[in-house]
Amino acid sequence: MRALVYTVNDAAEAQRLVRLGIAGLITDAVDKFSPGSSVLD
Predict the structure, then answer these.
(1) pLDDT computed for residue 13 by the predictor
(2) Phi-psi label, residue 21: left if phi above 0, alpha if psi -120 to 50, beta otherwise
(3) Which of 35, 18, 40, 19 has the alpha carbon at shortest distance from 27?
(4) Angle at 20 between CA 14 and CA 23, to 5 degrees
(5) Global confidence as pTM
């Protein structure tokens, strides 16, 4: 099953969720994440 998570605004939490295998995340902290970039970089 694929999962998306909503309103992740903390970079460390985003990295943790990606490592757990989520398919994607939604954020309103656009200053912390660039579209199309890897959270794990």
Answers:
(1) 92
(2) left
(3) 35
(4) 70
(5) 0.71
